[in-house]
Amino acid sequence: MKGTVNYELRGDIAVLEVDNPPVNPLSSGVRVGLCDQFDKANNDENVRGIVLKGAGNAFIAGADISEFGQKMEGPDLHTALKNIEYSEKPVVAAINGPALGGGLETALCCNYRIATEKSIVGLPEVNLGLLPGAGGTQRLPRIVGPSQALKIMLSGVPVPAKKALDQGILDSISTGDLVEDAISFLHKKLDETTEHPKVRDLNEKLVEARGNENVMAEAKALASKSRKGQFAPGQIIKCVEAAIEEDDFDAGMKKESDLFLECLLHPQREAMIHIFFGERTAGKILDVPKDTETQKIGSAGVVGSGTMGGGIAMNFANAGIPVIVLDQDEKNLERGIGVIEKNYQMMVDRGRLSQEMKDGVMSLITPSLNYEDLGDCDIVVEAVYENLELKQEIFKKLDDVVKGDAILASNTSGLDIDAISSVTERPDKVVGTHFFSPANIMRLLEIVRGEKTSKETLATIMKLGKVIKKAAVMSLNAPGFIGNRMLYGYTHQANMLLLEGALPNQVDTALESFGMNMGPFRMFDLVGLDLGWRARKLAKLETPLTNKIADALCEQERFGQKNGKGFYNYSDGSRAPNPAPENEEIYVKVAEENGFTRRDISDEEIVDRCILGLVNEGAKILEEGVAQRSSDMDIVYINGYGFPIWRGGPMFYANSIGLDKVLEKINKFAEKDEDFWKPADLLVAMANNGGKFADAPTDDLKKEKLAFKQEVKY
Ligand code: 3H9
């Protein structure tokens, strides 16, 4: 059994400590410990009260997520929590770090809650496709009111201690020794009263909300806007509805349990938990030992003050790391810093940042026109436009001026990182850090491992990724890295479908109904159709088949959102796409010129071809060792390309429909386009032996592939 609960007597108070490193989830051993140690304290006549805390830096991170879908050992959480709620002696939760999910639910069963200033509390179960199933949906609304509770549960965002105190979730904040403060607090209460409050008895805020339809309407609007396609939010709303309508607390609890079970059995739960663990696994590099020494990153530099450079700089400042933003052009620099300032101001205007916090982050950002200023930085990220010669020139300069042990990173989205590092005397300290635009918002960070990038550099960058709150995934230095290489399969199919008879709106709607954040043609319009067209014209290159329609649109000055017309029409700077029937003539003409007989195409075919295009390329990436594991690709697609989290990413999705079925479909598509649809060897092997991508290849095999791949020149 995992975890335990320690028992210590301090005078007449029993201090119980949940001990299940690193974050004290409520695993089987903890549940047993809670039952036993609460009994022990209640049976000891020398004990007048109980303090419950967590070991280390966390209070309790919730139920043990790895137990979901497994056979459960020991008592269930409800039994353990009943022991706390019905404790004969008053209980104070001494919240010494994150109290999340089942952790906050445990604290809500205590009579009082006191926390350190840096603690956070919250009910993030929705991020796992679940609802707070240990009384959270019934108890939190009793404290903060249904409307506020719904916001906390539907967003899944933790509440900092100070705010939680204002909302009444906490009774007090400790600025000294938490346990000593909790004991004093308890003594005071013991002296004052024999009636210690229970959250279950508070009904006032629920009664107030009865008959107020706005509460539920607002929650439904919030869920459909921010959690499109997800199952758990609707369940959470139903639980709170029950809390409001039921007179009896236990009837509400029963409803919560029933709805929780439905979430537990729903496929979205497995998909979202796959992503929870996948993000944490992505940070582990197979041949980089856990104890690899890392460098301290206490200061940073960014070369280039454009959209990317500015966004990257904001990441450092947000994490409290001073950052110098360098540009060679004074006007650009001024403009770039202005954009950063405007971004922060927007957050202030929307109430997401205080003016004081904005001043704080802005004071960490220093503009510079002089490379020498970067000399003492621990890391410098180059973020200029994609041109190898320019990047090499910058890296040569950086190598000269920046201290020898600093890391030099390139934000290239596709250039050869070895060609960049080769101009420096420190290729071991050179790495790719591919941020996604807008870099201050998008969570994905592709870490590109060069042939000579050292393990220390990789370990440092992975750690930095966590500090700046990114979902960091390592890719080998191969064309397109992971994300853009997979995207190729997807966009290729979208363009082929357009030639074969589908319309942009049909393709986009089918993929958006599947759950993609934005269909491919809306995405093309957003990025701009003219980029490739202009580059091809300049280099006098022939237009590939899949770009012929986009290039034909450019010839008609339809460049996308930027000039109000592309695959769609946009009125007056609006981003909302309107159909463009005038384009249909062009689609038909280009299709005919290239030998296509247009036909009706089903939505199912659209989704299969685009998504399986991603999957097949993903299998090849895995086979080559460019990505370490299939879940890494899921993390890339969810955080960088708008793939729906509730489907668990493209590779998980393929596993869930069955790799044999995937192969069958690919073979069928291959009858019409053999070149594109050549199935990955790995896919064929896994499909034939009934496996899943997650099972292959073995760690040893992957290590070998990794070593092998590093000898290959891209
Ligand atoms: C729930 O409570 C349901 C109930 O309502 C109803 C039940 C009936 N379980 O994130 P980190 C592991 S659902 C198991 O890197 P940090 C994690 O995988 C739960 N394992 O640390 C990692 O393992 P490894 C609702 C967990 O300091 C290690 O701990 N609760 C759990 O950056 C360190 O994690 C949540 O959703 C868990 N609950 O952040 C909270 N949590 O080292 C989930 C973590 O092998 N947890 N692990 O890779 C978090 O948000 C963050 O872990 C936390 C710490 C903020 C606590």
Question: Could you provide a short overview of the structure?
Answer:
It is built from 30 helices and 17 strands. The protein has 714 residues and is α/β, with parallel strands linked by helices.
Task: Report on the architecture of this protein.
- It is a single chain.
- The chain is an alpha/beta fold and 714 residues long.
- It has three domains: 4-265, 2-enoyl-CoA Hydratase, Chain A, domain 1, CATH 3.90.226.10; 300-477, Rossmann fold; 502-593, N-(1-d-carboxylethyl)-l-norvaline Dehydrogenase, domain 2, CATH 1.10.1040.50.
- The chain has 30 helices and 17 strands.
- The strands form three sheets. It has an eight-stranded mixed β-sheet, sandwiched between helices. Strands 1-2-3-4-6-9 form a six-stranded mixed β-sheet, with helices on both faces.
- The chain is globular.
- The protein binds (S)-3-Hydroxyhexanoyl-CoA.
- The site of (S)-3-Hydroxyhexanoyl-CoA has 26 residues, from α3 and α12.
